[in-house]
Amino acid sequence: MKRIFATFLLLLTLTACAAKPASYTADFFAMDTFMSVTVCGESEDTAREAAFACEQTVNALEPALSRTREDGDLYRLNHADGTVCTVSDETYAAIEAAVQYAELTGGAFDPTMATLTDLWSINTENAHVPAQAEIEAALAKVGYENIVLLGDNQVQLKNGAQIDLGGIGKGFATDAAADVLAAQDEGAATGALVQLGGNIGAFGANPAREGGGWTIGVGDPDDTADYVATVEVQDKSVVTSGDYERYFEQDGKRYHHIFDPATGYPADTGLRSVTVVDESSTRADALTTALFVMGLEDGMAFCAQNGIAAIFVTSEKQVYTTDAVASACIYTFLGADKGYNDAQ
Ligand code: ADP
Ligand code: MG
Questions:
Q1: What is the pTM (predicted TM-score) of this model?
Q2: Is the peptide bond before 21 cis (omega within 30 degrees of 0)?
């Protein structure tokens, strides 16, 4: 919790709007994380209205995307015992996107990790290393091909599968906030910074940069109040997945919350974090999770093939960027005095 808050402060320091034009920041807690929406515009009133509209949209998405909200569609679908369920437009669209990225990443991103996530219970008091038999039983229910999308918002889950949108939900919500900002009256939201946990959306003009872009820090996995690089972006999302915010330690080993669907264990590929810069926050969110599972070599190859702008930080303190980073943002490596190496 403290670490998440530290990251949050860091980002604000790097990116806060200048005093002019007017700006307003809405801070709130949703989807199990700190969130903040800063809107810059012609007047404080319109900026506040736009920021609150984003907050409301994100809050309204929570039951649609959370599998623990008993009043939500995803909960109902997961507890429908394999029968066909009609869900809301939002839940359907998020599941559709999740399946698309599962296919694109060959299942490295898999939205049916719910049984495994439950078993490991990372970030709860029950967090523990499960028995191998338990992992195998949970894995038997994992597989995105068990999601049947029937159209007209109808979904069916086969073979005991349950959907977990934790790997894509904040990206989906960031894109929804972007739509809200784009729909504001002209001048009401000339620039905005949407920070939903590790998902950042930086939109429009940054008044502190006279209309230029927004600078986002790529956190140091060993000290998230500090950073190893910055990226300057405009109308893009910057998303990071890492092993350092949600984890527990047992017998001196760290177990984090990004699971390899092939093993049922936390992905152990020598990576500390992956950051993706992309126009779509949903895609960036799915891909950071997937790239973390793929590891450096396969992940870099995947990014080269698909033109993805990604930054990999390894446990050997090497920082790698893909070719697409140069065109997606202005990248500045800053990790040298913290022992990191710009491995280009
Ligand atoms: P964060 O939630 O910290 O932003 P991620 O976007 O990487 O991080 O999402 C991790 C969450 O996604 C986990 O808490 C779990 O709910 C789910 N998850 C874990 N492993 C996978 C995976 N291989 N594919 C899809 N979702 C996953
Ligand atoms: Mg993700």
A1: 0.94
A2: yes
